[in-house]
Amino acid sequence: MDAVYALAVPFRQLSSLLIALILVMGAALFVVTRDGDDSTETAPATTTTAPTTTLATTQDFSSSTTTPVTTIPAACVSGTVADPDSAGSPDTTSPDSTTTSPDSTTTTASPDSTTTSVAPTLGGNSSVTTVGLDTVTFGLTVKQAEAAAGTTMIPCSPVSSCYRVAPADAPEGISFVVDSGTIERVDITDGPVTTRSGLGVGTDESLVVERLGDKIDRQVNDDGSIDLIFVPTDAADADFRIIFTIRDGVVDTFRSGRVPLVLPADPCAA
Q1: Rounded distance between C-alpha atoms, residue 91 and residue 93, angstroms
Q2: Over the stretch 170-206, which tens digit does the pLDDT of each residue have?
Q3: What is the CATH number of domain 73-86+118-258?
């Protein structure tokens, strides 16, 4: 009897422990289940996305300008280069000059047409004749010369009754002499420009003589240089000359123009 009682006591204790364990597990399961139910009942989070605003940046190209760089040709060595703003100064001749604006690189066909650029006409293949340099002929006003050359004529010295101008867009070494408002002479001191017969700066004296022959008058200058003066035989060109200045056996400079302005080395000297 005592033995049976001794076995029953531990059994009851074990049963109580199992019951307590079951209750604890049940409570834990209830809590887990309850938490799971809460998570499913939670209202879904509302994500509000602010509208994206795109800031468009517009660059106004019409308001930006590029200032062209103007190189004064080396021929403008006889005087101080004038302010480029004075280029295209009003002519002192009669009103029969063209209506081309001082910036004569543009022309307008009609009031409703768009403005078109005129390509510069003076280049490495340009040639000097007794009447001018390609499209720039003697007797043109400065504005007319700008329109003919498709570029601005920049004064090399203050504008007066006699002064030099140089084309802004042309080979180096070109300058024109303006006398009483019109182009009357062109000087070539450097560059590729030649006469129609191919005579230019650097040409041997013998070749000039060979090609022009008996049409040349020879003159020795005070500084030892020699002027070979081409005298046209055509009556229409009787007032014009082409003069090649020879130094060390080659053409150092040459010029063309109307007599008497073409004859002196510095035609605008007082």
Answers
A1: 5
A2: 999 999 999 999 999 999 999 999 999 999 999 999 9
A3: 2.60.460
